[in-house]
Amino acid sequence: MKRRTWILSALGATGALVVGWGMLPPRSRLGTPATMLPTEGDVALNGWIKIGRDGSVILAMPRSEMGQGVHTGLAMLVAEELDVPLSLVRLEQATADKMYGNVSMLVASLPFHPLESEGGNKPAKVRLGEWMVGKIARELGINATGGSSSLADAWDVVPLAAAAARAQLLGAAATQWQVPLAELTMEQGLVRHRTGKSAHWGELVAGALHTPAKAVLKDRKHWTLIGQSALRMDIPAKVDGTARFGIDVRLPGLLFASVRMCPMLGGTVATLDDRAALALPGAMKLVRLDAVAGSTAGFAVVAKTSWHARTAVQAVAVQWQQRKEGALDSARIQQSLRATLKTDKGFTFYEKGDAAAAEAGAARVVEASYSAPYLAHATMEPMNCTARFKDGTLDVWAPTQVPGFARDVAAKVAGVDVDKVTLHVTYLGGGFGRRLDIDFVAQAVRVAMACDGLPVQLLWSREEDTTHDFYRPLHVAQLRAALDAQGRVSSLRIHSAGDAITPRWMERGLPALAGPVDTPDKTTAEGLFDLPYGFASQHMAHVATHSGVPVGFWRSVGHSHNAFFSEGFIDELAFETQQDPLALRQALLKDAPRYLAVLNLAAEKAAWGSTLPAGHARGIALHASFGSIVAEVAEVSLLDGKPRVHRVVCAVDCGTVINPGLVAQQMESAVIFGLTAALYGRIDITDGVVQQRNFDNYPMVTLADAPVVETWTVVSTRPPAGVGEPGLPPLAPAVANALFVLTGQRQRALPLQV
């Protein structure tokens, strides 16, 4: 089934119903004052903005802060439009209203090639697809922090909400003072008149409620805050220790629970004896845990302290039972995927020209096999959740990326209506996609129901966290290129295989929308089907599998391994055609000027081609993901036979830069995260059991091993695009390509081995 056929048939599947519904106006995302939580003394002007009596501005915050700086970025959009200092913007957790749903994240899931979907001249199928999915996303109202989409999603609504509030406040001042609107100016949170009269927002807001006004966005030439490296709003509390992560929640009468799950993925409890465990000091009760929201069955022990709980849960005598389908084994899964590539053509995500004909008439065909292993998220804060079930109501404190899903599963487990659940979103000690799942929330609620109205904090050990993750899938790929008699590359074919993430995630978090048949999942082939290179013939297909290993979204998702496949192979083609890796890419990007500009900027800042110290080499890679384009040059040497990355030069086009400091921080973060995966990351499963358990055999890049990272941004007037993830995909291929220069050995499997 062709990609275009699938998209159009999926969009038209509901026939006349879709046509009629499509004629209705899209759901408003500005909301009304009633959308915000009522707080004494504050006045809401729409669903995003409230004004405090002291003149402060309160922004409804639907996105989760997990170190990426989203709270600061969104607050900057408000401060800019309202001409107030960033210090006057306060945040409150948004309500569960659908208007806070992340529309951009779902629109970005459409499998369109970026060269046909960006810019003002989009094909009709692209415009139709984006419009329809955008409407569906507004109706679903899925509030999620993921896909590097928070600022991109806020760009069309948060500044508009602030501009509407600004117009209302100015109108109120003009009415109250009986002066023309044109005579009023704003600065630093004050409205001023040329007579010298002034007032802050809090003194005007009462009249603003009854002042109709048309929102007009500030011209970018008048920006004073956007584009500046403003200090992050979350840092002071994180420095002085007052920041509240999920693990920091403390409530009167709080109990603690430690969890233990079947070590065999998908397995169950056969028998258990808790007598010795509950006889230990501080231990109170054992709670059985069923497999809910994708979790593995097991049990938790509740105790007076976290240490008592951890000690007691390990003392439970238990016999485990393997899953009925048999034990999972990662080596066998990889062998199966290799065999699948030989028999299953998969789903074609992109096709151009005739790759088969080009290969048939080629002077030579270059072919290579690549692979990437399962990976864990290994967030610094293990999975945890605090819950209190009392008098038919449920309070939940959770570090989650999906508050709506967390609230829904909590209500389901507790057997109450969702409006009986109050969810408090804390800071996240790392997310990386792991907290897009809500298994730990379901477990905490189940335990809380057994605690007689007392709050209980469920905390996973590092071992449980590592061995019961939703892993980045194991994928393999076969890449083929045809070379003509002149040594030019005439075609590129990529055939990959591995588990699809989105259908499994929907089964866990959105079971009502998870169909009996999986639709093609863009995440399996992103970074392969959407390459910018101008090969005359291309064929990109993926075989989506379902191995039984729990898989989930991992930072940059499919791009994280597919960039290694594609950019490694591009370097192979440069070697096979006796070209400089930079020069080959430049030639292939002649019709993609945005990509070429980023590539050239990275090469320039890294001084590509200049002399390096003896024993050092450079590798380069270019990759686009989440709307941004990133090129990286890695300088690498071998130290005691092991790769040592000294410097990474990163160039990025992420559209309009809200805060250059945040961009640099996220590029540095992505490089370090990606380097850990490139050098060390692997999850092995034997007899159903994950072999890596803690940082001793699932190591991280340490401070001493971290490279210098330089970030250079392309000046752009395009809307903001993703920043949290795009810096990761080019890192592994850039390092691998440098290692080839050093050793002459081609790296086609992760983690890199020398």
Strand order of the largest sheet: 10-11-8-18-15-16-17
CATH architecture grouping of the largest domain:
2-Layer Sandwich
Number of domains as seen in the coordinates: 3
How many β-strand stretches? 27
Global morphology: globular
Which stretches are poorly predicted, pLDDT < 50 over at least 5 residues? 1-17
Number of helices: 24
Derived structural class: alpha+beta
Q: Report the end-to-end length measured between terminal Cα atoms.
A: 41 Å
Question: What is the arithmetic mean of pLDDT?
Answer: 94
| C-alpha-based Rg, rounded | 27 Å
CATH superfamily of the largest domain: Aldehyde oxidase/xanthine dehydrogenase, molybdopterin binding domain
In terms of DSSP E residues, the strand content is 15-25%
| Top-tier CATH class of the largest domain | Alpha Beta
Percent helix range: 25-40%
3D architecture notes:
- The chain is α+β, with helices and mostly antiparallel strands.
- It has three domains: 33-100 and 154-239, Aldehyde Oxidoreductase, domain 4 (2-Layer Sandwich); 246-324 and 383-459, Aldehyde oxidase/xanthine dehydrogenase, molybdopterin binding domain (Aldehyde Oxidoreductase, domain 4, 2-Layer Sandwich); 330-375 and 471-743, Aldehyde Oxidoreductase, domain 4 (2-Layer Sandwich), CATH 3.30.365.
- The strands form seven sheets. Strands 10-11-8-18-15-16-17 form a seven-stranded mixed beta sheet. Strands 13-21-20-19-14 form a five-stranded mixed beta sheet.
- β3 (57-61), α3 (70-82) and β4 form a beta-alpha-beta unit.
- The longest helix is centred in the first third of the chain and has 20 residues, at 158-177.
- The protein starts with a helix and ends in an 11-residue tail after the last helix.
- The model is unreliable at 1-17 (pLDDT under 50).
